[in-house]
Design goal:
Oligomer: single chain
Protein name: Saccharopine dehydrogenase NADP binding domain-containing protein
Bound molecules: NADP nicotinamide-adenine-dinucleotide phosphate
Number of domains: 2
Helix content: 40-55%
Shape: globular
Distance between the termini: 70 Å
InterPro entries: NAD(P)-bd_dom_sf, Saccharopine_DH-like_oxidrdct, Sacchrp_dh_NADP-bd
GO cellular component, one term: plasma membrane
Strand content: 15-25%
Family: Belongs to the saccharopine dehydrogenase family.
Number of strands: 16
Amino acid sequence: MAEIQTPPYDLIILGASGFTGKYVVREALKFFNAPTSPLKSFALAGRSQAKLRQALQWATHPSPPPSIPILIADTTDPLSLQTLSSQTKLILNCVGPFRLHGEPVVAACTSSGCDYLDICGEPEFMEKMEAKYHEKAIETGSLVVSACGFDSIPAEMGLMFNSRQWLPPAVPNRVEAYLSLESDKRIVGNFGTYESAVLGIANADKLQELRRSRPKRARPAILGPPPPKGPLIEHQKKVGLWAVKLPSADSIVVRRTLASLTENPHGLPAVNESAEWVEKRKSFWSTVKPAHFGVKIGTKSLLGILRLMMVGVFMGILARTSFGRWLLLKFPSFFSLGWFKKKGPSEDEVQSASFKMWFVGHGFSDSNLASQRNSKPDMEIITRVMGPEIGYLTTPIILIQCALILLSQRGNLPKGGAFPPGILFGPADLRERLQQNGISFDVISKSRLPA
Ligand SMILES: NC(=O)c1ccc[n+]([C@@H]2O[C@H](COP(=O)([O-])OP(=O)(O)OC[C@H]3O[C@@H](n4cnc5c(N)ncnc54)[C@H](OP(=O)(O)O)[C@@H]3O)[C@@H](O)[C@H]2O)c1
């Protein structure tokens, strides 16, 4: 019988020379060869040897860089991706926009059976990859998991954390998340995220088309009435924010996890799971109760919200024509009112930024109340997820923790398939790992609502 060869690398960071990629390298190095870490070997990959070398130097500065192999791969060259994916257990893909560059990487991983994680925040890409590669990934034993960054793990883990505070007989009905970005300096994002957002808006109808062509997913049974529509701008006094709906990937990814949970109420059976793990998985999911979920972005002043809405209007209108997109992409700083820059934030700007995401849950103190006519939630539980800067500190922390789970607990995860991160990593202690690495989850209050 032919011997199955273990690939030489535990993981490869593809797009390591990018703005986010280099921060991912810095985060990976913290765990490289540490005594209890499963990360014993890794390589950097991309299309420019010189840029990758610079990224490695930047990531280890002021220490000299360790000897990390550099591999050349281009997403326009399928053979280079095939070679890459045959050399590793796992690829961490940081090459975006994903709608432009992601599919060949997923195709290579699912063909060779290597696992794939990315930091994509583009719903159409995620759903398209699931539609096209899920079956192949099951067959070859490749796990394909998008959205392993700020999009959308704080939302996924944050909703689960809030939902698990509703102890029987209490049940949640809806959870609204309020994201607040904070800094003593300016809050700035890199062009890569901005470009991905512009292209996402431009192609919004493609996502609807894709969904219409796919079988409907299971809907979770949520107790109580549907959530009220609410005002366009909300003043959420409990968390001190003015807030408006955030059209991010978060609620879409959460919905996919809840659909997956409805189809698999005990979570996803794994390749090689022990009886102890099966027990843990089942007991974890038995405490997660589905709820309606939405995300809003908030600022302390009404003026801040009006500025955000202005950027949304610019992008919403201009992204729909090719000339408008050209303008948006040529002058990112102007059209985003300074929130996105071609060269990204400075190190100081990154270090001084942080986020808070408040989860305001409304539900019933007793599930029997939920089925009564005209029932209204009588209980509120507020929880909070808090961490450092979202794009270049929180995202690498999350991606690397997801990678370490894959490397250390592969037997507790399904053989293969394309899944949202929450359904895979929820019971695998991702929240606890994030907590140990600077992203905290706290219960803020539990109270009865006035009748
Ligand atoms: N989930 C989240 O919260 C989150 C956070 C941060 C970023 N992101 C996403 O991550 C993506 C990257 O953002 P970024 O700001 O880091 O962008 P970036 O600085 O432009 O980096 C892009 C990377 O992709 C590489 N690349 C481009 N075309 C390639 C090709 N044909 N073959 C191989 N590599 C190629 C670039 O290589 P070169 O250096 O050779 O140009 C670079 O390494 C975006 O889609 C963004 O939305 C998500």
